[in-house]
Amino acid sequence: MSEYRIDASDDRKNIIPAKSRMTGVNPAGERLGFSNYYMEKNGKPYFGICGEFHYSRYDERFWEDEILKMKMGGVNIIATYIFWNVHEEIQGQFDWTGRRDLRRFIELCARHGLYVIIRIGPFDHGEMRNGGMPDWLFGRPFEVRSNDEAYLAYVDVLYAQISMQVQGLLYKDGGPVIGTQIENEHRHSAAQWALTTGISNEWMTQGHDGEAHMLKLKEMAIAAGLDTPFYTCTAWGGASAPAEEMLPLWGGYSHWPWIYYEHDRFGEMKEHPATPEYIFRDKHNNEIPRSYNFEPEYTPEDYPYACCEMGGGMTPFYRYRFDFPYISVPAMTGIKTAEGCNLIGYYMYHGGSNPTGKRDVFLNDLATPKISYDFNACIGEFGQVRESYHRTRLQHYFFRAFEEWFCRTKTVLPGDTSQMDPHDVDTLRYAVRAADGSGLLFLNNYQDHAVTHDLLIPGGVTVQTVSEEIRFPAEGPLRLGKDGYAMLPYNFDLDGVKLKSATAQLVTRMEADGDIYYVFVAPKGMPAEYALETATLAGVVNGAADVREVGTLTILRPDAGIGAPIRLTTATGQRVSLLTLSDEESLSFWQTEVWGRERLLLTSASLLVSGDELKLEVTGSEETVLRVFPDFGGEAPLGALTGGERVERAQDGIFAVYRFRLPQKDLRFELKRVKNDKAVLAFPEDAFTGIKEALLQIEYAGDIGYAFIDGELINDNFSNGKTWEIGLKRFSERLVQDGMYLYISPIRRGSVVSSNTTMAGWSENAAELIAELGNISAVPVYELVLRKG
């Protein structure tokens, strides 16, 4: 394509009160509700950022810091499944203790100011055994997932139990529980009845009675005391979604391991297709009532387009192993928000490990690992933060900082995108969200299951507003790196300076001592440029930027980096600074309130802030650096720290730089290899003292990796060529006492099972067995805690 243009002159969005019954008030008078386009808080647009974290899939001793990590990543709502079979595995015996303690989990969310959506089932899926339904429901003389009264009698008991756990924690009582999801994928998805697998392989029903069943479940939930401002349901694939009573939720994944189930019936699928997920569409437009992965039974503009399952990762299935590209997650976020989504939801945002049962030891879906539910999520199974966590954090900062403006912007496409080929990696993918002449130009150069490359667009991209044309960049070609994405502002008011266009992604805004700071990041492969309206400027201190006057524009081209912000003065005397982070620097950028003051920080450590504590979680290094602006100054003497010592304070531009040293920990263990496929690990008594976590890293070749403590499986891994990681701290006492052993089950090539004997002489023979343990090491995770003096 030689020219990229988009007409955004019609950028007025029709926003009206929502038709659905979704509103609530808490005792403090705070009100939540919805327009037809976005969530509202006290009558103003509220951008919801929802992350899925399953309390029962994580050791309860570590919940609080993981909830804090989610908050620090920009999440403001946590969604969590309540798996029926986890709580009532044995009929009549409910367990709400330990990692099943829903109430304590919600209380911790409340402590840190996060809203909660409870997904109450009764059917959940979630890669759980029977989709979360107890085995004891199988074969009973009624249809599950229907309005059969005998079935609903059991559901009524479940809902009553859930209600007892959350009373006092509902929004109307001053608690954080703002939403309730009813069922999941009703009429769309089912799960195998696990106790039949391997014999008859029976699947449960996808659901009966349609919307009437969903409405009945909502009625039962309210009667049980589960009274929340709004109720949700998943809507994709023709699922039952009564929009007037429940907010329909959507999603999309870059990896579809479930398609390999088809192998059993139709032959082996050799190659995963490139999905159409990364092509921009408009999903809040009555003139485009249906599009890829969006076929609502309601009029699109009558209700918000909201998501609950944007692929924050994906779990491997036995027949499909993959090296998940973390860059796919922020690219997906850009796509969904460009499409008109003002309430985003990641599944999963935080990974975990399946709990074990009392009767059936393993509660996993049978296509997935028995224990591991890491999901390649933004935060991993043992609290590891991934590239996707850092990159989406930057997007979340923007959505929250400018939510009132952004929520009102309208999606504009360059034309009909419905026939675009996802395999076409040469054509730029772009869209706009705009309102009243200002907006964001969204760009995407990521495509799953395809090989992309750097893009060079000689003519740039031109956006037509009602009164002018705006070019990106103002001069020269547009460049976007391989797998890159961007959200570029135009006609944006920087507190009195008119930003006509930028080839840098706006992240956030902060005030400090009368000055205003805007933080941008240079997208992958894209030189940063700011085109400012000269008439709105009284002065420019260009720092490390090249400055040119072109017509009515002042064009600044900075070297990306924190060293020298561009300092502007408006016509009214307001001082405005532009800070341009490099792509690499942006992964260490944080914005949060520390000790009563909003601050910008840069650190490669994971940052957790709560009350008077600032924690730095450092993996595999004995030193860490923290850059902070404004400086702590006399507000907090940094002698009040534990877990390390300050060795230096310096200055780098506007940032104070603190260097810390942490006590080195030699993570010793005794390793005994038994053949190629087995090993025994023994740990000394002090193996885990002085560290927050220990990540065992295992290189191996084979089919599945299994880790045991005294005969109990504690973790497993479907081999995909990547390092297998296990967090050891939660097992520390048992590891010191009993040690651990590893087993690698082999890849069998040319395998034949024979029973050609007169008796039951089953045997297996294979032409080749591949199972070998490689390097095994352990990486310490330290924690440095700074407290306000």
Note down, in words, how this protein is organized.
This protein is mainly β and 789 residues long. It has 4 domains: 10-405, TIM Barrel (Alpha-Beta Barrel), CATH 3.20.20; 419-580, Beta-galactosidase, domain 2 (beta-galactosidase, domain 2, 3-layer Sandwich); 589-661, no CATH class; 670-782, no CATH class. Helices cover 13% and strands 35% of the residues. The chain contains 11 helices and 52 strands. The strands form 12 sheets. Strands 6-7-8-9-10-11-12-13 form an 8-stranded parallel beta barrel. It has an 8-stranded antiparallel β-sheet with strand order 16-17-18-23-24-27-30-29. Strand 29 (545-550) and strand 30 (553-558) form a beta hairpin. Helix 7 packs parallel to helix 8 (387-401). The N and C termini lie far apart (60 Å). The mean pLDDT is 95.
Give structural attributes.
8-stranded antiparallel beta sheet; TIM Barrel; 4 domains; 789 residues; beta-galactosidase, domain 2; 11 helices; mainly beta; 8-stranded parallel β-barrel
What is this structure, in a nutshell?
This protein has 789 residues and is mostly beta strands. It has 11 helices and 52 strands.
